[in-house]
Amino acid sequence: MSLERIRLASLHNKVISAQQAAELIKDGMTVGMSGFTRAGEAKAVPQALAQRAKQHPLKINLITGASLGNDLDKQLTEAGVLARRMPFQVDTTLRRAINNGEVMFVDQHLSETVEQMRNKQLKRPDIAVIEAIAISKDGHIIPTTSVGNSASFAIFADQVIVEINTAVSEELEGLHDIYIPTYRPTRTPVPLTKVDDRIGTTAIVIDPAKIVGIVFNDTLDSPSTVTPPDEETQGIANHLINFFEDEVAAGRLPKNLGPLQAGIGSIANAVLSGFQHSSFEDLVMYSEVLQDCTFELIDAGKMKFASGCSMTLSQKYGDRVFGNLAHYKDKFILRPQEISNHPELVRRLGIIGINTALEFDIYGNVNSTHVCGTKMMNGIGGSGDFARNAHLAIFVTKSIAKGGAISSVVPMVSHVDHNEHDVDILVTEIGLADLRGLAPRERAKVIIENCVHPAYREELQSYYDRACKIGGHTPHILREALQWHINLEENGHMLATKPEAKSA
Amino acid sequence: MSLERIRLASLHNKVISAQQAAELIKDGMTVGMSGFTRAGEAKAVPQALAQRAKQHPLKINLITGASLGNDLDKQLTEAGVLARRMPFQVDTTLRRAINNGEVMFVDQHLSETVEQMRNKQLKRPDIAVIEAIAISKDGHIIPTTSVGNSASFAIFADQVIVEINTAVSEELEGLHDIYIPTYRPTRTPVPLTKVDDRIGTTAIVIDPAKIVGIVFNDTLDSPSTVTPPDEETQGIANHLINFFEDEVAAGRLPKNLGPLQAGIGSIANAVLSGFQHSSFEDLVMYSEVLQDCTFELIDAGKMKFASGCSMTLSQKYGDRVFGNLAHYKDKFILRPQEISNHPELVRRLGIIGINTALEFDIYGNVNSTHVCGTKMMNGIGGSGDFARNAHLAIFVTKSIAKGGAISSVVPMVSHVDHNEHDVDILVTEIGLADLRGLAPRERAKVIIENCVHPAYREELQSYYDRACKIGGHTPHILREALQWHINLEENGHMLATKPEAKSA
């Protein structure tokens, strides 16, 4: 216990055990917890809750910023605690429960959750559990490695449990910028015009009387599990770098490209990491998660500032950044996810959004979430917040998966998360398709020519040619449109004959 | 000719005939023309262009605000003038050419066209043809019944042709509010916080030296072709009114509901018209097109202010409004479509967007554009601009079409324009489904229970039940998902047996 981290002395008597805190969470409650892409989640209380539920079953609606680390979604699922879960997850056990219809999962644009609560369209949390590095002298909460939805959860909830993580340095104080939009109908513009603008407070301002318990933990965030760049991701990065160079030369992008956003995960991280070897200087990010690539680019002298709502780092980069925080502290900022992903700011700043597709089709529709149109992977996350309002909406994926059994480019996607109207650029290691200003038939041509793996190109071209004979603005053969997915479900590979046999 | 409408005398010598103006449009040019939903389009020059093309063929890329009136899209298509067309159309002849692959149609969010031109992502017009009521003493262009994309087209084009419409009263001067966002990276917030804020100029500010020709016309806009309300549209309106009353009672909406947007067309117009008989007062609109319903609500004392980018009225309402402009003039305003549909403003103001669906599926995905996934109807228009960022994204449609051969509620939509993440409320004359905060399986339940026509309910329930046995977050049977559309294409009706035979 480190009582000096509770700087408002009158709160010292609120210190309780994680078990006591978990008792404050009742069956049927809506619980708002901190945590965004395995960063800054409350750790002790959810674990105690899972333990408690094994003896005394209860169900809650759990709302977070995004995914939790430390296997908490797994533990809560196994303990049967989750009736409902939103707005994003990445856990195998929880995913299985979602796909079995056991947990009701609401897969939501990450900028919208607290807006819907503000407007009472979503139930506000009965109780919030927020990880903090400290409680300020005013009784305000200073978050740890993510802001996510924590600020609004603490503001909306009647009761707040604070988990002070003593394993996280108090040096983080000052990194956060908490801005809460005002209520309609008198809402004013979000006053941010540059990625490094500071528009809010460094702590979450609440009435300290709402703090019903303070718990200590000393568990670090789970390290990021991103895989290192490989030949394909470097290929994707190279195509993008060439594209950006052409855009700068044509006067369509400034020399520093403008604010970059990169989705969570190995591919987007690897792609951005590939920018170390580009000619671009003075890069800036206005993104959701700050991953290893952000700090790689800072270290390489390529990036001068990054704004995000959480930081999800590998062991190596975690040690480097948290071990040298004074060096990095003026180079990044953490904001609420409502602000990092805000449509108003995405459009104003002219963000270049780089997100990962699960699959896309010949007309530029992107599936980010559903395997074969039915099984949830992780969720849409912030990709829609960015793609819809971005200066450039870019989606990247490797051209094939599962050793070639799956083509990431298909006749018709089995689920649409980003439609033809919202997608500007598609990139695989094979090449890049620039869809801007093109009609569907023109898009099909550049996508088939540039993005498809050779093992699938002939079949896809054949589908498109035969569809064109039927006609339509967006030619399709409805009887065949989903056949590749049906083949995958039934035979384990998308084509009638295994594509490996056909590839050179 | 009315030279007094050219108030900058040095421009008097720019008056030319429509034929001379049409000669300024060369083969291969990108041409930006005024006109939005059959309002305020240049009339004499495109007609002269179509005539000329019959003798001397040429192809252009034609970009407008939205659809043109006076059969101009038909005439230009028949004359073979259109190589490319964007961003919206409603003409039968043009539609056929688009679906035959003869005209490349780019179906775009209406707020994005000039933004993409500003950033040089879309080719800027070589020449702009803009209808005006007059040219000001400073040589600036005062638009007629729509602003649409006219301002940015005139700003971007090297050459501008002005068509002065003497059939439109100069009394319209002062109705327009032209605001152009600044360039990135120093763009500032759009300074609009209330629907009746005036943030721009009353005329389009350009260098008058760019005006290469001034043509006179005296043709009125085509009257709106909206059909009158019927039992189904009144049923949809009643469901919506009940829903809004509940929202107000629950404190989720203010008493005047907040700014309303209604999509172009008979259904949305009829639905809003139905609000005359509601208890709501002091309604305001922040919409794209101001249709009859806007002025009906103003006349009924229900609506106090309406902001739009064009006015598309029936003969009756046109006579009433233009015949009594002094009475209406302080009650509405016309802005560029980039501003009427701006994501920043849609989110800030908390707009309630009411748009028409062609079909929606049991999970809440909406198709607004493609018949059977392939054939373009009109285009997405502004529905995506509003739905994605709205306080409430509402889609309305009659539950069946073509005498019952088509169900508007299907297992899986054949094209997605608005996905499950963006759609809040679905309404047919059967009932209303409130999807907020629901997981896909929960959405399917309320949609099947509330929105489906009885003739299709059993089949849809059967599909859903069998899909659930297979499992998944979003259960589907891929082999059957598009079968209703295949049936429609092959047999002319969606079910294996004609639904009329099954309905009571």
Automatic annotation (TrEMBL), chains A, B:
Belongs to the acetyl-CoA hydrolase/transferase family. Residues 322-463 form the Acetyl-CoA hydrolase/transferase C-terminal domain. Residues 10-215 form the Acetyl-CoA hydrolase/transferase N-terminal domain. CoA binds at N378, G382, K402. The keyword Lipoprotein does not apply. InterPro entries: AcetylCoA_hyd_C (IPR026888), AcetylCoA_hyd_C_sf (IPR038460), ActCoA_hydro (IPR046433), ActCoA_hydro_N (IPR003702), NagB/RpiA_transferase-like (IPR037171), Succinate_CoA_transferase (IPR017821). This is Succinyl-CoA:acetate CoA-transferase. The active site is at E288. GO terms for molecular function: acetate CoA-transferase activity; acetyl-CoA hydrolase activity. Keywords: Transferase. One of its GO terms (biological process) is acetate metabolic process. It comes from Acinetobacter puyangensis.
